[in-house]
Design a protein that fits this description.
The complex is a heterodimer of chains A (293) and B (363).
Chain A: H1 13-44, H2 48-51, H3 74-82, H4 85-116, H5 122-131, H6 137-150, H7 157-181, H8 185-193, H9 198-226, H10 229-233, H11 242-247, H12 257-268, H13 271-281
Helix pairs in contact in A: 1-12, 3-12, 4-7, 4-9, 7-9, 8-9, 9-13
Chain B: E1 4-13, E2 16-26, E3 31-35, H1 42-50, E4 57-62, E5 65-66, E6 77-80, H2 92-102, H3 107-120, H4 136-148, E7 154-158, H5 166-183, E8 186-191, H6 194-200, E9 203-208, E10 211-216, H7 218-223, H8 228-233, E11 240-247, E12 254-257, E13 260-263, H9 266-275, E14 279-284, E15 289-292, E16 300-309, E17 313-320, E18 323-330, E19 340-345, E20 351-354
Parallel strand pairs in B: 3-8, 3-9, 6-7, 7-8
Antiparallel strand pairs in B: 1-2, 1-4, 4-5, 9-10, 11-12, 11-14, 12-13, 14-20, 15-19, 16-17, 16-19, 17-18
The chains are: A mainly alpha (293), B alpha+beta (363).
The structure holds adenosine-5'-triphosphate and magnesium ion.
Chain lengths: 293, 363
């Protein structure tokens, strides 16, 4: 059976140059990606004066002042004590995990049936499902707001979960359908012959699409967690999430940079391990070799 | 252990017909082989028995129960799939044990049965691995294992040993046959290898193009094929067919083969005159035809076309005009390609078919 070890071949000059260029490029990209996060993290531990102590442009020798401060966690304490960030963190968590769970449950069943059955108009149905994601959120937010308000869902967590789900579900169906398509139906046939009914056979192949489902759940959570529009419009008031709450730290008379930076850290930190997880889940190829092609 | 019947079963895929009006009664405990060329509808028939394929029309009956509407799990069958269909995320042990777990059998009994099956199939050292770490033949044996750990009403095998090496295949043939005989489980075994069918089956169902051609014991099929297609499909090396026409009056009827007159024995003569068919396809099996470089009385002049060593003897293909005839000769036959030679056979060993529709001439 084919193994997945890398084979190296003799290569020409271009490839050798690329071998040099790519680390340089990756290094530059890394700095570009990580620097803002780094500055945010540092600033969240500085008081206002230290935060704006910066070296003059071009004075690379003075970079040290950037690190010259006495760390303080007052911003963090203030966030949770004065600004209720505990509640907002909870709201963010419930809304994003809740919508991801609903989207994955409904989405996997829908994706499974679309993957396993043929019927007239299937292609149109699939297109219709994805077309609901083609319009930008701003384009639908006004009618959606009207609907949600007449259903008394504005400013409630269930309302926010529903709003996130309407946008995550089409995405779930398309993504998971791809994963189910990759699992040969023969495996379910074997499961049925082994004494399972159709639903049990579906459950038997779930481990095979588990990487896909895992990756998808995380992407859904990320989407909902970072969402701003729904959070401010549908969730405003009773179901404020972290990004919406952070926005309110910007007051006309006073922009509280320290708290904003701390809020940024609080919002970003839980998502980093999830990002790392997604990478692990997206390693596909589990079905390799079980069915003769 | 149940009798299985197909009653007027059809299977269409859109416009194309995969199985055409199949009628077959398989007895309780019988080992039946479905034999036919690629694409003739063998797997489709088997999958309809398993409940994996919708039946376009007709009935499939287990015992006295019509099973058309019964899902696979309620049919009490075990099946080896043509494409193995193993569970990629389970170890070989769990793959084989899976049907037993469903049946709520005690863990110690499961372990015992899995190990027994694995030993028989020579995969007992692989039980901890996963399917992608196995060779094709090992996977195929795992698929057999998953079927034979159970004792269902019916075994369905779809080319279960097609990817094993010759030696292992010979062993598995006898192991499967032995097991089936001991358990007495009704077995339907799909193959395109006639040797498997001839050696294992109680009865063979020969299919071509979605149509059941003949259903009978290996001997019946070999000795009394119902048409020229079955005659040439079964038997290795293949039977040769020659176009001949009847000549002569009643009493001294003979066959005319491009000017060569072949005299007939009494039985053949009366059979052919009774049927009164002018144009015939006449078959001869290679081991009933002889070829020599010396002219012998009644022999047909031909030319050596090719010569293949079979081991103990040689298969000589000779050409008479456009017709080719295969004959076995012993290794001392030294004719080279293009050399003139003489073909001989006796009319008692010939097979007679109507040239028009290929049907056998009635006895
Ligand atoms: N899902 C399908 N859709 C359309 N046609 C199909 C489908 N499955 C099988 N067929 C057709 O039905 C016919 C019979 O197929 P089947 O798989 O039964 O052949 P087989 O006898 O098992 O051949 P092989 O020895 O190659 O396995 C073939 O002509 C095939 O092309
Ligand atoms: Mg087949």
């Amino acid at each position: 059976m084919a193994s997945r070890e890398l084979i190296s071949y003799d290569t020409g000059a271009t490839v050798k140059i690329l071998k040099w260029v790519s680390p340089v490029f990756l290094g530059a990209y890394l700095i570009w990606a990580l620097l803002p996060l780094f500055i945010m993290l540092m600033a969240s531990f500085k008081d206002l004066l230290d935060a704006f102590t910066l070296p003059k442009p071009g004075q690379w020798g003075d970079v040290g002042v950037f690190f010259d401060f006495s760390p303080t966690i007052t911003h963090y304490i203030a966030l949770f004590a004065e600004n209720n960030f505990g509640t907002y963190l909870f709201n963010s968590l419930v809304a994003s995990v809740g919508s991801a769970m609903i989207a994955v449950t409904l989405g996997s069943m829908c994706a499974y049936s679309l993957s396993r059955t043929e019927f007239r108009g299937k292609k149109d149905l699939l297109f219709w499902i994805i077309s609901t994601r083609m319009a930008p959120i701003v384009a639908v937010i006004v009618p959606l707001y009207a609907i949600f308000r007449s259903a008394d869902l504005v400013g409630t967590l269930p309302g926010l979960i529903l709003a996130f789900t309407t946008f995550n579900l089409p995405f779930a169906i398309w993504m998971l359908k791809g994963f189910f398509d990759g699992v040969p139906y023969a495996i379910e046939e074997a499961a049925q012959v082994d004494g399972n009914n159709r639903f049990q056979a579906f459950l038997m192949i779930l481990p095979l699409v588990a990487p896909g489902i895992g990756a998808f759940v995380i992407l859904c959570i990320l989407f909902a967690w970072n969402d701003f529009l729904f959070a401010t419009i549908i969730g405003s008031g009773g179901a404020k999430t972290l990004p919406a709450a952070t926005k309110e730290l910007v007051q006309p008379q006073n922009i509280d940079w320290g708290k904003i930076m701390a809020a940024g850290v609080v919002t970003t930190a839980p998502m980093i391990p999830l990002g790392l997880l997604v990478r692990r889940y997206l390693v596909a190829g589990l079905t390799m070799g079980a069915v003769k092609e | 252990m149940v009798a299985v019947s197909f009653n007027n079963v059809w299977k269409d895929y859109g416009d194309s017909v995969a199985v055409r009006d199949l009628n077959m009664n398989i007895k309780d405990g019988e080992f039946v082989s479905l034999l036919g060329p690629s694409g003739c509808g063998k797997s489709t028939s088997l999958r309809m028995l398993a409940g994996l394929e919708h039946i376009t029309s007709g009935e499939i009956v287990f015992g006295d129960k019509v099973v058309n509407q019964l899902p696979p799990k309620d049919r009490d069958i075990a099946m080896v799939f043509e494409n193995y269909a193993l569970y990629p995320h389970k170890t070989i042990f769990d793959n084989i044990a899976n049907p037993l777990k469903r049946a709520k059998i005690s863990p110690s009994e499961i372990t015992r049965r899995v190990n027994e099956a694995a030993k028989l199939l020579e995969i007992d050292h692989l039980l901890e691995r996963r399917p992608q770490e196995l060779s094709g033949g090992q996977k195929q044996r795992t698929a057999i294992g998953r079927a034979i750990v159970r004792q269902p009403q019916v075994y369905l095998f779809d080319e279960p040993i097609a990817h094993l090496d010759a030696k292992l295949r010979a062993r598995m043939r006898s192991e499967l046959k032995h097991m089936q005989f001991n358990l007495g489980v009704t077995t339907i075994y799909v193959t395109h290898d006639q040797l498997e069918a001839l050696t294992m089956a109680d009865r063979i169902a020969v299919m071509n193009d979605g149509v059941l051609q003949q259903f009978g014991t290996p001997q019946e099929i070999y000795e009394n094929p119902v048409n020229s297609w079955v005659a040439t499909f079964v038997g290795e090396p293949q039977m040769s067919l020659m176009e001949m026409s009847m000549t002569g009056e009643k009493g001294d009827a003979a066959l005319d083969f491009f000017g060569n007159i072949i005299s007939l024995d009494a039985a053949s003569s009366s059979r052919l005159t009774k049927a009164g068919i002018a144009d015939l396809l006449v078959g001869v099996r290679p081991d009933k035809a002889s070829v020599s470089l010396q002219e012998t009385p009644g022999a047909i002049k031909a030319e050596v076309y090719s010569r293949q060593l079979l081991g103990a003897d040689v298969l000589v293909e000779v050409a008479i005009g456009k017709t080719r005839v295969r004959a076995k000769a012993d290794t001392s036959f030294m004719g080279n390609v293009g050399e003139p030679c003489y073909l001989n056979f006796s009319s008692e060993n010939l097979y007679y078919f109507n040239a028009e529709d290929g049907k056998v001439v009635e006895r």
